[in-house]
Amino acid sequence: MPLDSRTLADDHFPLWAEEPPVPSEGSLVPGSQFHEEQWVMAAGMLARGSSFLYVARAMGCSRTTLWRAYYGSKDFRHRVWWERQALNREADLRLSSLRSLVVEQIERLVSSGDPSTVRWLADRLGILDGLAAQPGSTAGAAAADPAAGRLRSCAAVGRSMRRPLCRLPCRSLCGHRSRPGRRQRSRRHP
User: Is residue 105 part of a domain?
Assistant: First the structure.
């Protein structure tokens, strides 16, 4: 149900809530035998990237008819453009909601003490690089001898978590890998 234009004369909706453009001649494709809803559907399909042939088959017309309608009606082309813009706005809204979900999940994993998430986050934020640059720190000594520093840090993480080290995400850092096909018991790093 359309809103009364007098009640919201000065209000401006956000871009995602805009109404589609009204055709200047009252119809997207004037003089067409097809209903307006079919042209709206065709504009949406073209905006999503469907081919002219596929859209023409869905409408029940020839590709030439659709082609002539597209290039002959400025309102139809404008509706296709508007549908593309609406799809882009929807995609932006979905991405922003996905970003917030990802942030919530990372916060939950970090607060629960998941070591692989903490290490990944520290690596992505560059926190480990900042520790290596500090003079007199054990991380600075580890930077001088990377293999020794990695093994020391893996052993420290393993002791603090009281888990077998072969289950830690540090496998890629210290070179410890279990042999394929053999089940490993709680072995320490070699």
Answer: no
Q: Is residue 32 part of a domain?
A: yes
Q: Is the pTM of this model over 0.70?
A: no
CA 134, CA 138: separation in Å to the nearest integer? 9
Q: 103-137: per-residue pLDDT in tens? A: 888 888 888 888 888 888 888 887 777 666 666 65
The pair of three-digit structure tokens given for residue 52, joined into one six-digit string? 């002219």
Distance CA 46, CA 36 (A): 15
First vs last C-alpha separation in the chain = 72
Give backbone dihedrals phi and psi of 19, rounded to 5 degrees, phi first. Answer: -80, 155
Residue whose C-alpha is closest to residue 120's, from 96, 134, 100, 102: 102
Asked if the structure places residue 75 within a domain, the reply is yes
Q: What angle do CA 168, 172, 174 make, to 5 degrees?
A: 85
The candidate with the shortest Cα–Cα distance to 55, out of 65, 126, 144, is: 65
> Is 61 among the domain residues?
yes
Residue pLDDT, tens place only, 156-188: 444 444 434 444 455 444 445 544 555 555 555
Instruction: Give the domain extent around 158.
Output: 126-173
Q: What is the dihedral of CA 19, 25, 31, 34, to 10 degrees?
A: 10
Contact 39, 32 (CB under 8 A): yes
Cβ atoms within 10 Å of 73's Cβ, excluding its own: 21
